[in-house]
Write a structure and sequence with these properties.
elongated, five-stranded mixed β-sheet, 7 strands, alpha/beta, single chain
């Protein structure tokens, strides 16, 4: 079953400020968020929380510290829902049910400013996320990539296989120097150019010369293209 962390309640009135492995709650949160492009898979790999229904509400009996972090991630808009296991054991529930506010809130022991620490971690994640977006957006030199594409278009109708081979080698080297591998337009175009280059340059009579030219052109592209 999938459910929003905000719809889950704590069975405990307090939680420790660290996990059993010794990691603090804030350092554990950073371990989840430190790679923005891998957050969902990291969260999916967390142990599934055990949930019991009581008085019309779902209470977490296995994973109150995880719930605390997941609620924070949901409020920050980083996740929406999580997997839970529905079960019920009245004896276990009664042992853990120490909350005095119907499980709506929980206190972190020995840490009066844990919320602030978690907010700091999320702010750090946002900055890293923005830096990654800026890097991706700025990677490709669009003007240079357009020039690469223009040169390739001049080869249309070229009957000489060697000239076609050299032209596609230059095109791929040109896009490589423009850092367009991650660009949504020129990235696929570069892959297409590599495939065409392989087809053309591997035809009879061009293989040996093409392999030498490929190394030379890719090297020169770093300086002159």
């Amino acid at each position: 079953m999938r459910i929003r962390p905000s719809e889950l309640r704590y069975t405990q009135d307090t939680i420790a400020n660290h996990f059993r492995n010794g990691w603090s709650l804030d350092s554990s949160l950073w371990r989840l968020l430190r790679k923005p492009d891998d957050v969902n898979s990291r969260i999916a790999n967390l142990p599934t929380m055990e949930v019991m229904q009581h008085d019309g509400h779902y209470y977490v009996v296995g994973g109150n510290r995880r719930l605390y972090l997941l609620k924070k991630l949901e409020s920050a808009g980083i996740i929406s829902d999580v997997d839970v296991i529905i079960t019920f054991d009245s004896a276990r529930f009664n042992r853990q049910h120490t909350t005095k506010c119907e499980g709506k809130f929980v206190t972190v022991r020995y840490s009066l400013n844990m919320d602030e620490k978690l907010d700091h971690v999320i702010a750090k994640y946002r900055r890293k996320q923005n830096d990654m977006a800026t890097t991706v957006n700025c990677e490709c030199d669009i003007k240079k990539a357009e020039s690469c594409k223009h040169r390739l278009m001049l080869l249309q109708g070229e009957p000489n296989m060697m000239q076609l081979c050299i032209g596609h080698l230059k095109f791929v080297a040109c896009l490589t120097s423009a850092d367009c591998a991650m660009d949504p337009i020129y990235g696929p175009l570069k892959l297409e150019g590599i495939q065409t280059m392989n087809d053309v340059c591997n035809s009879d009579g061009t293989k040996t010369t093409a392999s030498i030219l490929a190394l030379l052109i890719v090297f020169l592209a770093q300086f002159f293209m």
